Amino acid sequence: MKKIILLCFSFLILQAKPLISVSIAPQAFFVKKIAANTLNINIILPPNSNEHNFEFKPSTMKDLEKSDIYFTIGLEFEKVFIDKFKQNFPKLQVVNIQKNITLLETDDEHEHLHDHSHGHEHSHEHFDPHTWLDPILVQTMALNIYDALSQKYPQNKNLYKQNLDQFLKELNSLNLQIASKLEKLKNKEFVVYHPSWTYFAKRYNLIQIPVEILGKEPKSKDLQNLITLIKNKNIKVIFVQSGFPENAAKTLAKECDAQIYKIDHLSYDWENELLKTADAFSKNL
Question: pTM of the full predicted structure?
Answer without folding.
Answer: 0.87
